Known about the structure:
The structure holds two protein chains of two kinds. Chain A contains three helices and no strands. Chain A is mostly helical. Chain B is an all-alpha fold. Chain B contains 30 helices and two strands. In chain B, strands 1-2 form a two-stranded antiparallel ribbon. In chain B, a hairpin with a 2-residue loop joins β1 (71-81) and β2. In chain B, α12 (286-293) runs parallel beside α15 (329-349) and α14 (302-324) runs parallel beside α21 (476-501). Chain B is elongated, with a radius of gyration of 36 Å.
Amino acid sequence: MGEFGGVPLSGYLVVSAILFTLGALGVLIRRNAIIIFMSVELMLNAANLAFVAFARSYDVLSGQLFVFFVMTVSAAEVAVGLALIVAIFRSKHSIDVDQMSSLKG
Amino acid sequence: MLLSETAISTLFNLVPLIVFLPILGLLINIIFGDRMGEKAIGAVASAASGLAFVVSVLLGIALWTGAGEGQAVPFAEWIRIGTLNIPWTFRVDTLSVTMMLVVSGVGTLIHIYAIGYMHEDVRFKDDVKRYRRFFVFMNLFIAMMMILVSGDSYLMLFVGWEGVGLCSFLLIGFWYEMDTLGRPSWANSNAAKKAMIANRIGDFGFLLAGFAMFWAFGSLQFGEVFGKASQVATLTPGVILFITLFMLVGVAGKSAQIPLYVWLPDAMAGPTPVSALIHAATMVTAGVYLVARSWPLYSLVPNAQLIVALVGAVTAFFAATIAVGQYDIKKVLAYSTISQLGFMVAAVGMGAYVAGMFHLVTHAFFKALLFLSAGSVILGLERGHHHLAHAGGSPRSPDIGHDTRPEAQRLELPDSGHHEEIFDPNDMRNMGGLRKQMPVTFWLYLIGALTLAGIFPLAGFWSKDEILLDAARKFPVIYIILTIAAILTAFYMGRQIWMVFFGKPRHAAAGHAEESPGIITIPLMVLAGLSILGGMLNLPGLHSLTNWLGHTIEALEHEAEVAPWLALSWGGFNPIVALISLLLALVAIYISWLIYGRKPLESGQKDPLKKPLGFIFTGMENKWYVDEIYAAVFLKPYTAISGFLADVIDGRFWHDWFHEKVIAGLYNFFSKTVLDLRIDQQFIDAIGNGLGNLTRRVSVFMRRFQNGFVRSYALAVLFGVVIILGYLLLK
């Protein structure tokens, strides 16, 4: 198991876990759609950090490669998501996700 | 030897043609008949019958040159079940060829006669299209009769026996939607049904005889049965008695003997050629043929022979008495036929098989002659009546006013009014003086009547005399009964001649009667010739028929001790017996002249015998009320029992009670309480309702989670992930 920059793999994983937890809490706690969106990005990037850390540690390229895919998907997601948020704001004059519960059972 | 052996066997192999030529004729008429004219239809049918006659003649020649040796000609395999094997084999021997010659010979003459007769009959009855049907049925009859006489087993004989019964039914009911006077009615079809049912009773006896025969002999082939007959007779004597007596029931049905004769007078509803061919000359003699054919069985049981002879003799006498009191020209001949059949049955019963067959042949000639001449008389009267009606501007005409409606529709209608006057052309009270209008028919009828009366030297004299002589030698009682019947025969024929042809016309139609054309009279002349010369078949001293049939029937003539005057024999001819019967016949004719000829019947006058004979004549007139007695003794209880069975047992018990109450009640109860309340409502409904309730409850529970808050969904996803990951890590 190699080290990089004197920091062990576990350090990167801890940072990644913290970032993921923050993102997840953000998604669950905040009601502003944009914040939730940003929290989702945070979770994705936590995952990306874990990918590259493992890739570097095991000296394989597939982890690095996967990060590109995640970044591409999240970029696309942002494009669609922001468009949705704009559309919702236009109709409801709010981007509070709790206001958008008309599909409840 | 006239012919070589191969030529003879070739001729024998022609025998299937006697069946298939008439069938070919009827097929041609069925398939092409609608495009053929009446003449062509009649010609085809007559030719088919005539060719069958030619084949019969060839067979006769083959037999004659072959010294009378009979042959069985195998034709086709028919029934083969296990060890039972009944092929379709033709029996060619002197007995069957005699029958074939009579059937096809007389049959052909009657076919030719019918060309003329039916031409007019279908026009008087307004249905020209039925002409073809008549000839199809007639050819079918010839084919069936040929199967009957040529079969080599009792089963094949029975096929023909039933076949001729069917043809009889079809032809009696030929004008099924009217009565004999042409009025809309079911009378003719009822007569047909009566014939069918009376014959069914007889056939039931025949069938039982056949079953017993199969049980006792294991075969129905003539050869095997007759070969084992004496052996079986010693082992189980009752069986032969049983077979012969039940066969007699069949004979009584088909040959119209007491007690089943009642159908034959009603059978006169058929067109006259049918009465001549089927109900006088051929079919009704099938019973006589059956007994003659079964001579090896009857010869073994004298008791059965005596019963057969008594039945025949009593029938001969009884029917003759009824014939005296009839007014319908065909009814007189019908009862006369029953009486003459009685003579034949008595003869074959006494063991005088040849005498019976001799009388069968001559009777076929002269009774066909009489019936056909009667048909000519009837047509003459119809013509006279039609002539009158036409002259008076009446709508009844064969040329105009055809009823073109379909048959079924015509049946529903009551008398549509174009028979303005009920005129019975068969009623002798409407006749009189026809000698002048119809001279040819008169002479022909006279020949037939004298032959029937047994006047020397006509055919009837010889054949009847042979029967009487046998009776006199063996059974004096039967001789006396038959002699009285013979006297009555001469008397009623005399009565008929005086009433029909002498005196003055008692009806305008009789005054205008017209003679029949050649197509009708020429076959009659041939028959008259046969009636005159028929006695030559078995002249005393020559005995050609006896020698001929002797090749087939080898019955032993055991000579009984008889009085010297009976033992007298001029070559088998007893002049005393013959003279007695001839004198009695002449006396009877003289008496009939005294009563009916000297002072002819006036129009509307009652029968002169009515006064002196009183209730006896009333009985004769009303056929001794036999039909009424049968109606009271058999039909009424039968219909009552049928009504009881239908109404009470079937209707009220089975239908109303058992079916409606028990079965339907139980079913309703079961379906209501068990199927409906228990199974359906409690079980099947519970499954359906339970599923519905379950689904609803589950969804009520589930909708709590569907709260619409995105974040709570996200929390659920998180929990899910945590649980799955936790499981994966900790397992």
